[in-house]
Amino acid sequence: MAQRSRLVNPEGFDGRAWLSVEEWETYRRRAAVRYPQKLRNEVIARDGEVCSICGSDSEKPIQLAHRIPFKMGLIDFGLTPEWLDGVDNLRLAHQGACNDLVECSFGEVPQLLVSFGLNLQESPVVRSGIATLEQVDGGDVVEFKFNVT
Ligand SMILES: [Zn+2]
After folding, report:
1. Does residue 1 fall inside a structural domain?
2. What is the pLDDT of residues 43-67, one digit of tens each?
3. DSSP string, the chain
C-alpha cells in the first residue's frame, strides 16, 4: 500500500475555521490531504437537489463545489481543510460552467468570510504578519494586503 501523507492535525480541527500559524506554515510547504466529501446529503437538505447556479435539476450530473476554492482558502487565507470542505463552503452545481461560477474570486473571499461571522484578524496569514487587512475605499469592504518582501 502506498504511504499516505500525514495530516498536520490527524485529530481534526475541532470545528475551527482558521488554521493556527504553525499549521498554516506546514500546509504552505505540503499540500493537504483532502477530506472525503460526506456532506452531500446535508447540502441537499439545506438547498434541495438542484444546481445552485442555474436552479435546474436536469440531465448533467450535479456535484459538490467549493465557494472558496480549496487551495486558495488553505494557502492564501489560512482556513482549515475541515472548514473548506464543510457545508458553509459547499454548494451543488452542474459540472463545467455552473461549477466554475460557484467559485468566488480572490477579492470576494474576505467579504464572504465576514458574512459567515468569521473574524479575519484570526487568520494565520494576518497573525503572522504576511498580510494586513485594509479597508477598500474607506468602505465596508476589506481586503488582504500581502506584504511582499
Ligand atoms: Zn447548473
Report:
1. no
2. 999 999 999 999 988 778 888 999 9
3. -PPPPPPSSTT--TT-SBPPHHHHHHHHHSPPPPPP---HHHHHHHH-SS-TTT----SSPEEEEESS-HHHHHHTT-B-HHHHTSGGGEEEEETTHHHHHHSPPGGGHHHHHHHTT--GGG-HHHHTTSEEEEESTTSS-EEEEE---
